[in-house]
Amino acid sequence: MSEHDTKLRLGVNIDHVATVRNARGGHVPDPVRAAMLAAKAGADGITAHLREDRRHIRDADIDALMQALEIPLNFEMAATEEMQAIALRHRPHAVCIVPERREERTTEGGLEVAGDKARLTDFIAPLAEAGARVSLFIAADPTQIVAASQVGAAVVEIHTGAYCDAHMEGRFEDRDLELARIQSAAEQAHGLGLEVHAGHGLAFDTVGPIAAIPEMRELNIGHFLIGESIFIGLDAAIGHMRRLMDAAR
Ligand code: PXP
Fold this sequence. Notes:
TIM Barrel, eight-stranded parallel β-barrel, 12 helices, globular, binds pyridoxine-5'-phosphate
């Protein structure tokens, strides 16, 4: 395999730059400026989640990102008709379908694919025909992975939230169990012909073992990087994350 096939890409999620902007209701900090800086600092792609309630990224941000970005945009969205129409209008490089519940603070769990196969197959087809690489954000659960391989998705993104939470809370046995689940999910998904991504909650302390998974091709990281940029700057935070990912390969 060439380096292109095996390189681990870093997608930087800029949602929480918009969270800070929206806290004041004005125009700064600008998520597009953060995206341009992230690209310079070594991000391979930018991820932005347009939520139904527009709590962080807004429609105008997606318009501006599509205009300004020279690296791929991974457009995160719920499987709704409204979002499908927006994705078809913009034709981003990738679309990541996530579950969304209004009352949640962040995307808490993985998508229910196994119980919703017919609807997801119909939902994904036009997006794939429009040229988007469609990814499903799922738990490290063998049933969901088999289902993901049957609905027309090219990619699965494995939810690393439980692994990261266990680490942060010092539950190291649970953390290692979660890591083993993610490792075996990555192997299974790759064996079924799916490209494997991962993300949610990753930080300097937790990225190494996930980056070391041989089948892994992309990590999407947001909240920690935006938070860390308060202390060391976005450029340095992304640069350090990139080095930790490379060192783990
Ligand atoms: N991947 C997906 C599919 C997500 O929904 C999120 C959170 O929006 C992330 C990655 C990034 O998670 P975090 O902001 O915790 O790094």
